[in-house]
Design a protein that fits this description.
mainly beta, 3 domains, 11-stranded mixed β-sheet, 6-stranded parallel β-sheet, 3 helices, 26 strands, globular
Length: 342
Amino acid sequence: MMVVKTVPTLTITSIKWISMRRFALVLLLVFSASNARGGDIFVNNVSGDDRNTGRTNSISEGSGGPISTIAKALRIARKGDRIILTNTGVPYKESISLQGGDNSGFDFAPFIIQGNGAVLDGTAPIQIEDWKFVQGDVYCFAPTYKQYQQLYLDGKPAKRIKVESRNQLDKLEPMTWDLVDGMIFFCSEKDVDPGNYRITYTAHRTGITLYEVRNVQIVDLTVQGFQLDGINAHSNCYNTELVSITSRGNGRSGVSVGGASKVTISRSLLGDNATVQLRGEGFSKTTVLDSTLLENTAPATYQKDARIEIDGEPISEAPAAQSAQMIRRIPRPGAPASPLQR
């Protein structure tokens, strides 16, 4: 007896059904990707209010208007969001941290802080009662953090003269300073009290700390006046990009990259930092493209077991100044201590 196997045939109706299901699946994927791109959070440190949602840039929108701090924006942000700062001309006086999934992005939609030329500033004024007379025209001040300090005079890093101990304080010239035994020593003009100057110091620890984030971009932002680093990619920060960044006048470095982080710095300027402009440690890799590392106050690079490449050229662990001088232009002799515009 012969057995005939029948093969099911697709009717027009079933073909249409399959096509509709596939179309619906494509729509679902597109819709999901669109949602995954996140939203915009607007920040305005003059007219914003942290009680708002930050979903529009208009203060006329009531509770939907901009918020006032970057820290609040980071708390309410979700993966793939974009934080947009308004450049009000007034520095944002904050120290912020990006950490984990909510402050990360996707391969196709990074988490972005769009600075629009705004300034993130970590300085604070020294009150007149906090100065103590030492000798002659030399006064001292005890900062909260005892290492890696910067002193600002009229909004710019003051000239620093290195002295070995308190016994050499007479080497300080008028309007210069140094950090000795955890104390800031400042020499004023003859018979002028330091309270007559607009003096600030690096009061906050780090401008931007990144920890275990992925697919992050920080764009068009100036970070200045922090006690340790302007930007610190502490550990496990992957596909992190710093674009059109100026990091200046910080106590240790402009940018520090550590752990196993991988960071790209492009079209940026690092200068006026006290110890080094760019530092790498651990198993990190930093790629620098079309950027300037000034050696006016400290070496361009420092690395310990880390990899740094500048415009495709690897930097060895030779003395930092020598390596950077071969790769990157340095200021002319006699250039001002602070060539960065403010």
